[in-house]
Amino acid sequence: MPQFSLALILTALLTSFLGLRYFLRRARLSYPPGPKPLPLIGNLFDLPKSFSWLTYASWAKTYGDVVSIVVVGQRIVILTSATAARELFEKPIYSDRPTIPIFDTGLMNWNWMTQLTSYGDQLQAQRRVLHGGMRPSALAQHRPMFEAKVHQFLSRLAETPHDFVEHLERSSKLQGSILMSLAYGYEVKPNNDKLFSIVQETGRLAVTVMLPGTQLVNDLPALQYLPEWFPGTGFWKLARKGRELGKAMADSPIAFVKESMAKGTAQPSIARDGFEVMQESDYVLKPGSITEEALRNACGSLYLAGFDTVVAALHSLFLALALHPLVQRKAQAEVDAVTGRTRLPSFDDQPHLPYVDAICKELVRWRPLAPMLFPHKVHEDNTYRGYLIPKGTIVMVNGWQARFPAILQDPERFPDPDSFKPERFLTDEQSRKSDEEVVNGAAFGFGRRHCPGRNVTDAILFMTVASLLASFDVGPQKNEHGEEIPLTGAYTGNSASRPEPFECSITPRD
Ligand code: HEM
Q1: What is the domain range of residue 507?
Q2: Is the pLDDT reported for residue 426 higher than 60?
Q3: Highest taxon of the source (predicted)?
Q4: Which residues line ligand 1 (CB under 6 A)?
């Protein structure tokens, strides 16, 4: 008994000593540098309202590539170098997402979506589904579908070229129908498609609730504990609608896949491939392996995760071509040499079209479409370069900085970042340079949560750019006096940056 008490006392003393040492060491550590906070509200008034990446870039000049601020108690770290982004985001503890109250379990319950899921087995299983279904060898079976959808897009463009934004953005058209085929092997009907209208409505709702300042509950999460009759709790109605739509968006197309597999009519898709993997006789279920829930959630996430970004890149394409006639002519010459102007380009032509590939890479580099990428959250205290990054910190990367040497640490390779120059991705002999870092990291994210849709993006961009160049000339629009209407090339300043509305002329090539 005395021996037992002694062991207990020693254990208690050791635990207290280690605990004290931890707190003393933690107390000695400082947060990464940043603008000086005010009492209580911290850096609330320093937060930029638009073009936040420009403000963060200027802070980086003063404080370095790891800057920290605090806003009403919430610590935020902003990274502006690829080194810091890679070093931190490779660690599992940096791979959570911040909670957006309106999407949380108690309200819309959209946390099952891959982009919002916390780090853990469920996320791993969903990412396994997406990586498996969107790896280059799996995408090869979808090439005829990509080609057909792009050809339909060209026909619509030929009919009403002025409506090019509408042709890009109407989600039942190009990108929306590609994603539904890819995820479920589902062919969206041109009009009144019931299943697709659920997906579209969910997409519209997501855009509405994510607009800053529209949902008070996002700024004051405690509001969710007020009863529905309380004034100012209108978000409850929206949340109920979102909950129903989100569930239907994930469940209905998966039910369609199961039904068509049973009938033997299922088309190739990520969901069908996943079900087939699970049916293999040697399939072993382990934490993080594919389950029906992971298939439902991963496929249900694709539309919201992959619609807007690709549409924005294609929107940028029209602007870039209208602004850069020489780029357009050079690319058209390359395409014509391969097709002989007797047919449209195909994926088999891709190895012979390095300049077209370079245009696709430059499109996502030139104007990053998610300049601050997506925020991550740290789920354990961590020290980095001697600074404390406490549990709960939101960590963001300034992807816009990728256009500058600061993040690439290679001023030679990326000079003149504001210019649209596909040549920067080619060697002097006009063959491809390997520049995975800039396109992968700065546009598609670093580490464990990087975008799994990169290969799909490449395929859609390649097919659209090559086919558009083969069929149309894009240039500035002319006024009634035949003078060119100048293009400003301006972009919006919000977190999903897009070209400001512009007009251009799109004419079939002779
Ligand atoms: C130009 C096109 C695209 C860009 C610039 C882009 C960019 C991004 C970025 C910055 C992230 C967050 C990375 C991070 O948190 O570190 C992301 C996540 C994601 N993207 Fe993309 N994306 C594009 C297209 C697509 C497409 C076509 C799909 C699907 C077919 C897709 C599916 C996803 C998913 C599911 C996530 C969430 C991953 C996770 O949270 O673990 N993306 N994307």
Answers
A1: 309-368+411-510
A2: yes
A3: Eukaryota
A4: 114-115, 127, 130, 301-302, 305-306, 309-310, 313, 364, 369-370, 373-374, 443-446, 449-453, 456-457
